[in-house]
């Protein structure tokens, strides 16, 4: 299936190339993202899809810093040097299929500064092997007390608080045990 004429790159933004950046990779990516949005004449609130790079950040971190309220599409392609091309393909597929209307592709690398940080330089929070799921678990779920998969999945159910889900399950088991013991006598 050809995507020709069904999606377009409408803005481009980049930061200067230099050695020993004072900014973190995420800060550089955000600068480039805002420049691309400005180049396209698009407000950040119009973005409903993100294709972040496979390292240094996540869709959630970019979304929060860009002020995006509702992200309908997100995809990260970990394909080494081809990741940026795969991200453009994923964005085009999302737009052409109607999943999203405006997808921001963000790519960034701060290899020299990250690998050889100078005193006073902010070290990146993550290296290259980070996933959005790991960020959400570390930043959102664990501080709220979720530390095991059943608690994570219970949080995904609308209107279910992890503690109430856990206690309801315990009560159901207790009733089942009580009913079973009554039948045996």
Can you tell me about this structure?
This protein has helices at residues 25-40, 59-66, 83-97, 111-115, 132-141, 149-155, 162-183; strands spanning 49-51, 73-74, 103-105. The protein is mainly α and 185 residues long.
Biggest sheet statistics: 3 strands, parallel
| CA-based shape | globular
Q: By helix and strand content, what is the structural category?
A: mainly alpha
Oligomer: single chain
Order of helices and strands: HEHEHEHHHH
Strand content: under 5%
Please tell me how large the radius of gyration is: 22 Å
Tally of helical segments:
7
Strand order of the largest sheet: 2-1-3
What is the residue-mean pLDDT, rounded to a whole number? 76
Low-confidence stretches: 159-167, 181-185
């Amino acid at each position: 299936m050809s995507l020709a004429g069904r999606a377009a790159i409408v803005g481009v933004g980049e930061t200067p190339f230099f050695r020993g950046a004072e900014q973190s990779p995420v800060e550089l990516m955000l600068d480039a993202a805002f420049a691309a949005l400005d180049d396209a004449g698009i407000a950040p609130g119009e973005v409903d899809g993100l294709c972040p790079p496979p390292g240094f950040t996540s869709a959630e971190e970019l979304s929060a810093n860009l002020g995006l309220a509702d992200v309908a599409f997100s995809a990260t392609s970990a394909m080494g040097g081809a990741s940026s091309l795969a991200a453009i393909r994923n964005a085009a597929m999302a737009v052409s299929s109607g999943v999203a209307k405006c997808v921001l592709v963000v790519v960034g690398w701060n290899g020299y500064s990250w690998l050889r940080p100078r005193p006073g330089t902010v070290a990146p929070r993550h290296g290259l092997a980070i996933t959005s799921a790991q960020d959400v678990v570390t930043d959102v779920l664990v501080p709220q007390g979720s530390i095991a998969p059943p608690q994570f999945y219970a949080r995904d159910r609308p209107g279910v608080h992890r503690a109430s889900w856990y206690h309801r399950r315990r009560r159901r088991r207790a009733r089942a045990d009580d009913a079973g013991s009554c039948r045996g006598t």
